[in-house]
Amino acid sequence: MGAHVCKGCQGTVIYGATRQELNNYPLLPALVAFFLMTFFLGLGGSHGWRGGAAFAVAVIVYIIARGYVRQWRAGMIRTFRRM
Q: Is residue 81 part of a domain?
């Protein structure tokens, strides 16, 4: 982890995943897991423990997906330049 600015294009050098990627990419799998859990558990009139269980599974899926995003982007070095 050396440079913070590219000498050629004057863009910001990013190593690995950005904060935005770590926060946004895992949302879709977590939402899908939440809605699948609510469908399979059958959230009818009163939510009770079922809503908490669906939320807990969604949080676990979010954490696991965040780890995959971090691993997926680990070796990448990219530059971002604002115009």
A: no
Tell me, yes or no, whether 50 lies in a domain. yes
22, 70 Cβ separation under 8 angstroms:
yes
pLDDT tens-digit map of 32-43: 999 998 888 876
Beta strands per DSSP E along 1-83: 12-15, 77-80
Q: Domain count of the chain?
A: 1
Label residues 13-31 b or e (16+ Cβ within 10 Å = b).
ebebbeeebbeebbeebbe
Q: Residue 16 region, left (φ>0) first, then alpha (ψ -120 to 50), else beta?
A: left
